[in-house]
């Protein structure tokens, strides 16, 4: 949820920590793509000294899941 995201982004103890976003359902048509998601999240983490990485995944097929933990 947006509130949970904002709590994490604004948590003082996580200031400067890198953020990984797993963009699920990338196998479906009409979902937000990685670039669109990066733009949405970047607007919220700018000025927070955070690195942001968005990885496309599909939990159903497992595509991209291994990349997210390596």
Account of the protein in words:
The chain is an alpha+beta fold and 70 residues long. The protein has three helices and two strands. The chain has a two-stranded parallel sheet with strand order 1-2.
Structure characteristics:
37% helix, 70 residues, single chain, alpha+beta
List the helices and strands and how they pair.
Elements: H1 2-10, E1 19-23, H2 34-45, E2 52-56, H3 65-69
Parallel strand pairs: 1-2
Question: Fraction of residues in helices?
Answer: 25-40%
Quaternary structure state of the chains depicted: single chain
What coarse outline follows from CA principal-axis ratios? globular
Percent strand equals 5-15%
Q: Report Rg.
A: 13 Å
Count every beta strand, where a strand is a DSSP E run of 2 or more residues: 2
Task: Report the order of strands and helices.
Answer: HEHEH
Described by strand count, sense and barrel closure, the largest sheet is: 2 strands, parallel
Mean pLDDT: 82
- Unreliable segments of 5+ consecutive residues: none
Across the major sheet, the strand order is 1-2
- SS-based structural class? alpha+beta
- Helices, by number, come to 3
Distance between the termini: 26 Å
């Amino acid at each position: 949820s947006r509130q949970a995201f904002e709590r994490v982004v604004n948590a003082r103890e996580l200031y400067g920590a890198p953020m990984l976003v797993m963009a699920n359902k990338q196998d479906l048509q009409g979902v937000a793509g990685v670039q669109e998601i990066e733009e949405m999240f970047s607007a919220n983490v700018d000025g927070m000294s955070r690195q942001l990485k968005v990885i496309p995944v599909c939990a159903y097929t497992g595509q991209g899941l291994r990349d997210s933990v390596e």
